[in-house]
Amino acid sequence: MTGAEGEPAEIVMDVIRSRRAIRDYAPGAIPKEHLVMVLQAGRLASSGGNNRVHRFLVVQDPGRISLIGSVAPGMLTVPTAVIVICVDLRVTVQRQVQADRDTTVHIDVGTAAMNMQLMAHALSLGSCPVTSFSQSGLRAMLELPEHARPELLLMLGRRRDRQPAQNMSAQQKPTLDGVAYWEIYGSDSG
Amino acid sequence: MPENRAPALELRAVYDHLAFLLSSAELCLYEPHYYGTLRLLDGASRFVRVVLDAGLDDPRMIDLGRRIEEAKSVRKSNPAEYEQLLLSLPAVVAEAIRALPNGLQP
């Protein structure tokens, strides 16, 4: 975060703008209260139909993180903590949500993960979402119950510095005109 | 490494590597194709680490590991250089094989 003062909208935009996926972490534990704030941010994310079918598993034990890394090729570095975002299939049954067909199940993984990343960033933590992992492998490694379907891993660790990351290249970060249209899809800027 | 003494492979490291390779194979079913090269490269990098950690003393292997890491580091920032490095790596291994005492034997 580049500044903590200003109007709420500016503060929120500053957090959004300066957040980056961080895979390189400084040593040191993450304070428990920070992890709780990250979890609260996930809990408070929007949820399709307010069904709240997601559950979060926090892993901090280095041995268990190592087990995750063995079945998660997308986890390119070793984080200090991992939050496993799961869909609880017992809850989907209770709420009559079709877990394999209802797109909000996956969308809500993303909204929770983004809320968590923004909170982590505001707390000077680095975070990076990982979806490149074997579900069956992760289930076995972490002895997840059958009704817990892991959907996303959020790597967390202390940021190495408080400086905002360098700007992405133009190719990676399109302009607003390149992604947003007014009234007619594909139209020039309004 | 003393002569006639095999590197001490850790069973855990071997299984970790197998878990990585098999998870990567699964992911290749539905991830973008270009991820596949990275998974294979990362698998090679991990394999180099496993055998070096086991005590293998081979400068060519150390050099290969360094080259692999270099390729991994430019995958996103410089795709053209990434491709060139990928094209060059098999030759590095080939030269290492030919340099072995039994390298030219069937």
Low-confidence stretches of chain B: none
The separation of the N and C termini of chain A measures 31 Å
How many β-strand runs of chain A? Answer: 4
Rg of chain A, alpha carbons:
18 Å
What is the CATH first-level class name of chain A?
Answer: Alpha Beta
Order of strands side by side in the largest beta sheet of chain A? 1-2-4-3
Query: In which range does the helix fraction of chain B lie?
Result: over 70%
CATH superfamily descriptor of chain A:
NADH Oxidase
What is the CATH architecture term of chain A? 3-Layer(aba) Sandwich
The main sheet of chain A comes to:
4 strands, antiparallel
Q: State the share of residues found in helices of chain A, binned by percent.
A: 25-40%
Terminal CA distance of chain B: 25 Å
Overall pLDDT score of chain B: 90
Strand content of chain B: under 5%
How would you state the average pLDDT of chain A, rounded?
91
What is the beta-strand fraction of chain A?
15-25%
What is the ordering of alpha helices and beta strands of chain B?
A: HHHH
Number of strand elements of chain B: 0
Per DSSP, the total helix count of chain B is 4
Can you describe what's shown?
The complex is a heterodimer of chains A (190) and B (106). In chain A, 31% of the residues are buried. In chain A, α2 runs antiparallel to α5 (103-122). Chain A has one domain (8-163): NADH Oxidase (3-Layer(aba) Sandwich), CATH 3.40.109. The model of chain A has no long low-confidence stretch (mean pLDDT 91). Chain A has a four-stranded antiparallel sheet with strand order 1-2-4-3, sandwiched between helices. The two termini of chain A are 31 Å apart. Chain A is built from seven helices and four strands, in the order ααβαβααβαβα. Chain A has 190 residues and is α+β, with helices and mostly antiparallel strands. Chain B has one domain. Helix content of chain B is 71%, strand content 0%. Chain B contains four helices and no strands. Chain B has helices at residues 11-27, 33-53, 59-74, 79-99. Chain B is globular. Chain B starts with 10 loop residues before the first helix and ends in a 7-residue tail after the last helix. The mean pLDDT of chain B is 90. The chains are: A alpha+beta (190), B mainly alpha (106). Chains A and B meet through α3 of A and α1 and α2 of B.
